[in-house]
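Lab meeting, item 3. Inverse folding demo.
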């Protein structure tokens, strides 16, 4: 990233793509309808984006199915898809400044993080699956000498990815990376709050050589475009990341339509357990703060429940409170800013309502809790810490999706595990200790898809990501993600 870039000037020069991308070209919604795309940085209009509905989804599915049946992508040798996806990753890096800026303008995250973390990870994801796809072998089953049992992988066909607004392009890449590598045709439905980077990256996919109809983007609302995708009779699979409430709708839509495969990565309420024997309490406090305040707390694995052993509780909470000062909201287009805005006014108001619930339920508001930077016209909330929280309080049980930390205490390991597991969610958990035996024992007891030990966000593209319980099922990232986008076929041949 060029440190000298004036991001405000760069923003003025942007040319937004605002139409749907179907069959290799930009097209308006069939109805001609649009929706306003508002920047949470200052509350100003960025663009009027095509409001896709059932007819547009039908067009995208038809384009995707036609492309799949022609086989230019689905039947291409793995090495050919690999080369094309590598070029796609190169183009993402080439246009990284632009893509990062679109993400920041759309959802208010700090430009420094959008550029150095998000977009680099998008390119890495595409490149990783490109490299992987010609290294995944089919199988030969153990059979009698007069038979041959072949187990082969085939692409599913038409795959839809419905993604959230908190990491607009990265959550999409976790799905389109393996889906495209496996040979599927794709329909991407970005969140209505953050459609701009998805619409731009579709153009880069075409430039890289991905055939017409293989990569389609239909912006629109969940209740219209999203529902049309979920109920469509010719969509073979939906990969969804978002709230548990909406995830359940896609299960319902599948049962009411063609029993399409559904993969869900839904909500979380991550417990972050700090034991008294933690080797570096300063590092743990920094992790606790970044674990909840990064991306303004708009992270499905945000470490929103801080469980601290009684003997160090007061001193440790003071350390976390001091760390919170680093995350005071600032201008998202300033590279020094550590925390930006909420994604929109609706989300800001929702988070502030949880602050009021916490106070009403008797939790102690130790830090923050207010809207700030109101003169900007944007939607900003202070880093917020509640102490004296009981695990039956609303702020300890429901996913707030904002910079609000609920702090609890525990007496011993058994109580820590009991509190941590007392949740409908099981996406991620964290623990801090110097005792390897304790770390392994607690990790096995925690009901979560990922357990981080002495960190709050470990692992890259090489490890699977997904949850237990109402955090969903199926896994993004790693080679295991390929399973969601392929069918296993058995071909059994008898000789003589």
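The presenter then showed the designed sequence:
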């Amino acid at each position: 990233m060029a440190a000298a870039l004036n991001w405000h000037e760069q923003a003025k020069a942007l040319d937004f793509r605002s139409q749907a991308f179907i069959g290799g070209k930009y097209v308006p919604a069939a109805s001609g309808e649009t929706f306003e795309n508002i920047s949470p940085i200052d509350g100003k209009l960025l663009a009027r984006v095509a409001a896709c509905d059932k007819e547009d989804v039908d067009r995208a599915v038809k384009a995707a199915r036609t492309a799949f049946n022609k086989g230019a992508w689905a039947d291409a040798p793995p090495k050919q898809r690999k080369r094309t996806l590598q070029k796609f990753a190169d183009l993402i890096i080439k246009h990284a400044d632009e893509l990062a800026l679109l993400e920041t303008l759309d959802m208010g995250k700090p430009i420094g993080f959008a550029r150095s973390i998000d977009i680099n990870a998008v390119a890495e994801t595409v490149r990783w699956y490109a490299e992987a796809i010609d290294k995944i072998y089919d199988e030969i089953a153990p059979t009698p000498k007069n038979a041959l049992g072949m187990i082969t992988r085939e692409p599913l066909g038409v795959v839809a990815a419905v993604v959230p607004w908190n990491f607009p392009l990265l959550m999409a890449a976790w799905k389109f990376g393996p889906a495209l590598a496996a040979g599927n045709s794709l329909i991407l439905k970005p969140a209505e709050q953050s459609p701009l980077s998805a619409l731009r990256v579709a153009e880069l996919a075409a430039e890289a050589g991905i055939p017409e109809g293989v990569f389609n983007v239909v912006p629109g609302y969940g209740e219209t475009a999203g529902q049309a995708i979920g109920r469509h009779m010719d969509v073979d699979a939906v990969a969804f990341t978002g709230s548990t409430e909406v995830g359940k709708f896609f299960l319902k839509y599948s049962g009411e339509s063609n029993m399409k495969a559904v993969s869900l990565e839904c909500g979380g309420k991550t417990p972050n357990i700090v034991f008294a024997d933690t080797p570096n309490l300063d590092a743990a406090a920094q992790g606790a703060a970044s674990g909840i305040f990064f991306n303004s707390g708009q992270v499905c694995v945000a470490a929103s429940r801080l469980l601290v052993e009684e003997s160090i509780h007061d001193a440790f909470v003071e350390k976390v409170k001091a760390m919170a000062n680093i995350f005071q909201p600032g201008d998202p287009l300033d590279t020094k800013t550590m925390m930006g805005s909420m994604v929109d006014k609706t989300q800001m108001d929702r988070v502030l309502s949880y602050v009021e619930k916490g106070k009403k339920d008797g939790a102690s508001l130790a830090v923050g809790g207010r809207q700030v930077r109101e003169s900007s016209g944007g939607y900003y909330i202070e880093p917020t810490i509640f102490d004296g929280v009981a695990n039956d309080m609303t702020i300890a049980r429901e996913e707030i999706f904002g910079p609000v930390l609920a702090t609890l205490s525990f007496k011993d390991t058994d109580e820590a595990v009991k509190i941590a597991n007392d949740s409908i969610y099981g996406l991620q958990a964290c623990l801090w200790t110097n005792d390897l035996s304790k770390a392994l024992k607690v990790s096995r007891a925690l009901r979560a898809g990922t357990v981080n030990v002495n960190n709050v966000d470990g692992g890259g593209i090489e490890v699977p990501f997904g949850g237990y319980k109402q955090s969903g099922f199926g896994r993004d990232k790693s080679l295991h993600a390929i399973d969601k986008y392929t069918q296993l076929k058995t071909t059994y041949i008898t000789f003589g």
